[in-house]
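Exam revision sheet. Question 4 asks you to relate a sequence to its structure. Input first:
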Amino acid sequence: MERKLLFMVVVSVIIAVFAINSAWSQTVKSYMCLSPETNVAVAKFISEKTGTNFVQSFLSCGELEAKIKSETPYYNTDVCVAASPLTFLAKKNKWSFPYDSIGWKGVPSAFIDSEKYFYCVGTYSYVLMGNKDKLAEKGYSLPKSWKDLLDPKWKEQIIMPSPLTSGTANLMVFSFLTLYGEEQGWKYLEALDKNIHHYTRSGATPQDLVGRGEFMLGLATDDGLKSRIDQGYPIIWSIPEEGVGFDGVFAFILNGTKEMESSKKIIDAMGSQEFSQLMAKAGYMTPRPAENPLYGQNIPKYIKVDLGWAAENRPRVNELWKSKFRSAQ
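Answer key, structure tokens:
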């Protein structure tokens, strides 16, 4: 009887160990550069949709790229959601793993890498935003043109992210270089810098600073902006008459992950209609049709930035930006 009881205990322990190992094997880690609140919403959706424990870490685009470079080839994560520079670099260096996802069938080819190394889960941009209460106190209105930001009346009243850490800021810089040409684009950025109070780490931070009334104007990502307005922040926003640039956020699997099958399920889930609706709610233009609460049915006027050129030239441009403006940070 005692031997039988001992045998049953041993079997129970073995079953428990296998159960724990099975649960652990379903944990998938991800570095993501969406806004913190969008990261949380994505993690919740993926966990519920796939049955995996999807653990996310928020990193700004620059931080995410630096982390992946430092960890190569032994990554501490399985999946990335990143902007174009890291995504293109990951494909070029084979840091990412190609996967032909069944979840992305029927999605326009513009959102899918031809060799299936990555998938665009949405495009993001940036807006010019203002605190309507502080603007009203001064009798000012929201500028209509990017060049209006150079007016001395805005000195120390504009906040924007740093391209050294923020993918949104990288997009801003390359938008101005595209809009005005490199020579005049740098002159514009130098003139704009005279009115910038400081540069933030994240593209979403100016939303909070302007929303709280610490500054009148901000250049910020459109990700999460609608939710802040709905929360009661006195924010107004616009797309200046010259337009704005846009970039994508891309999902890809990292080569060498030990959670390949679970990671594939996550990529599949990101191609669903429900996921597009989640991303549209955050302010993204999505691979599957979904109403965008920020823009409605209107597509913003875009400055067509060559993202491949931007990715290749980003180190040079960031070094030049640092030499010009780092002392201001």
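Marking note for examiners. The chain has a mean pLDDT of 90.
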